Amino acid sequence: MHILHIEGGSQLYGGALQVLYLLNGLTALGIDNTLICRPDCALVNRAASCATVCPLPLHGDLDVGMIPRLLRQIRHSQPELVHLHSRIGVDVMGGIAANLLNLPVIHTRRVDNPEWYWLAAPKYRLHDRVIAISAGIAEVLRAHVPPERLRLVRSAVAASEYAQPCDRAAVLCQLNLPPDAQLIGIVAQLIPRKGHQVAIAALAQVLHAQPRWHLLCFGRGALETSLRNQIAAVGLAQQIHLCGFRDDLPNLLPCLDLLVHPALMEGLGIALLQAAAAGVPIVASRVGGIPEAVRDGVTGLLVPPGDVTALRCACAQLLTNPAQRQQLGQAGARLVREEFSVEAMVAGNLAVYRELLGCAAG
């Protein structure tokens, strides 16, 4: 079996990380893989051991020239099936290219934002199967995708990478924090739908009352200046830190005392699975696929999205209760091992490939 994968992102988090997990798992099962991705994508080097990597300019939703570029590469690679792993033009242009070559095509949907029917309906007709990474996303897709073409394969995390002992002294020194600091983390792009503004507003009173606690925001994005201004306005520049994108999360996450994920929209939340694998309790919004990753009262606490008061109360409850934090964290680690393994994700995708190729062959 030869699968051609197309990923339009550039950073190795979220969807691109899932692609790397999938390529490694498929290669171990004897599946041949070709990967088309942007030349500046982190996958160019990371995926070289498990796929034939073909860097190609992919400029987004308006890049109609993507179609002839993809056609040339797909013809050269001669795959049996095309798997589209992202939006930003790949979902449409990749679908058109695969259809022009009469190849079966799969699209994996990783976000839960609603779509205009007049745009979504024709787009999804390009795809023989649409894979949702959470039941929350599948529910959104039912408005556009017939049930016979919709499949659920949850995203995964390599739990052992994050189930590491915490070297707290080293981490605090690395982050230039006091030796008695206790750590709250947010791992998300600095974009509006991730809800950083809500978290800062919710935690301001708590952090002023408990100066040992520090909020670490890992990620980059367009809101950085706005968030710095908000942090200065609440007088917490010494306790709320914008730490940028980090590639050492397996070392950092085990040292968090709490992860907060105040997203206003979220397909599933890979950072939630990573933190849970590290044994970190979570406070998150009850939105999208998050309730699948965080079980309310079992592995963390869920609050309504955008509710500053509810988020403040949930965080305060756990910050003052280390025994409950430990209990939730241990339950989260079990959940990830049992329900979000990379092996299960790879098997789920492979089952869709076999189903579709079987239909095509018949």
TrEMBL record:
Keyword field: Transferase
Start and end residues of each Glycosyl transferase family domain: 175-333
InterPro entries the record matches: Glyco_trans_1 (IPR001296), Glyco_trans_4-like_N (IPR028098)
GO terms for MF: glycosyltransferase activity
Signal peptide (UniProt feature, chain positions): none
Stored Pfam families: Glyco_transf_4 (PF13439), Glycos_transf_1 (PF00534)
Protein origin, superkingdom: Bacteria
GO biological process assignments: carbohydrate derivative metabolic process
Start and end residues of each Glycosyltransferase subfamily 4-like N-terminal domain: 14-157
Protein name: Glycosyltransferase family 4 protein
Organism, scientific name: Thiospirillum jenense
